[in-house]
Amino acid sequence: MTEHRSDTIRPIRFEDGNLYLLDQRLLPGEAVRQCYTDAGEVATAIRDMVVRGAPAIGITAAFGVVLACQKARGRDDWRERVAADMDRLRASRPTAVNLFWALDRMAREVDGAPDPEAAIEATTTAARQMLDDDIAGNRRMGRHGASLIEPGQAVLTHCNTGSLATGGYGTALGVIRAAWDEGRVTEVFADETRPWLQGSRLTAWELVHDGIPVQLLCEGAAASLLRSGRVGWVIVGSDRIAANGDVANKIGTYGLALLARAHGVRFMVAAPLSTIDFDMPDGEGIPIEQRAEDEVLALAGKRVAADGARAYNPAFDVTPAHLVDAIVTEHGVVEAPDRDNLAALRRKAVAGEPVVEG
Ligand code: MRU
Question: Atom 15 (ligand 1): residue with closest C-alpha?
Fold first, then answer.
């Protein structure tokens, strides 16, 4: 396997009881690691986008629980204190289900621990395991997704789904890395992804690090690019996939899916099984985060919009399942996703059986 420079990027590190997050608000200009010892501050860091991307948010929150247990050491009411910190983490961002998945898993570790010391040990082990599993799963997902791509095609991606958005390697960007290594992809296009510019700042940074040429485009340029016939697949990640295959992802994803279908371009969603919310019947019920108007009205801290203008700033949208050609997970590929084939994927994954090998 090719060694990618970006694959050595780890947005989340836990050392000597401290949590270090690579501050993604400052990239690509500065690579600064912020240090956290308090779970409430971790919740604020998630809300403020120091760390972002669904899997990365979940793993960060898991380590946040470790910090909560450390802080509650020696207190009679340690369980209540840890629970209050978990509520803060839970309230940080609403859409990525990986956050709630990770916190539920950590809650089970805390519940099973007789005292704070045992809780620290159990949660540290579980959070480290979550991080390692995420990276290993992303590599498998990358290979599954790459196998769907006929050689000789360009791909288009949206937002950042790479090492920075996960424990490492990435989901959709992991598929692109694997496909590039296998010589299947001729060109990589990346939407700049307004308003946070995850594409221009983060995806481009990762790909340039890897020596994979990338061309950025304004979202408005996607229609003519897809019409040109150069792009074979649009490949994106997800923050939450409903049980019927509806996909919540970065705002603009739904528009790309419509454009892809209109131009005969295939549409792939790469996400770990933990992103599928089997308790959410369809995309209608997925909570969509609304973010501050200033993110749209200003650029790099300077207001650019006309005084008096307001902004509509949903952070995510929902793509209906019928526009999705394939959902790629670490356990295999589901083509034309629906309630039945996603449930079958889960059953087989739980049983440890291989699913559809792409
Ligand atoms: O607001 P963000 O930057 O957290 O949004 C991230 C995305 O929408 C990603 O596409 C998604 O989390 C998948 S990341 C592997």
Answer: 161
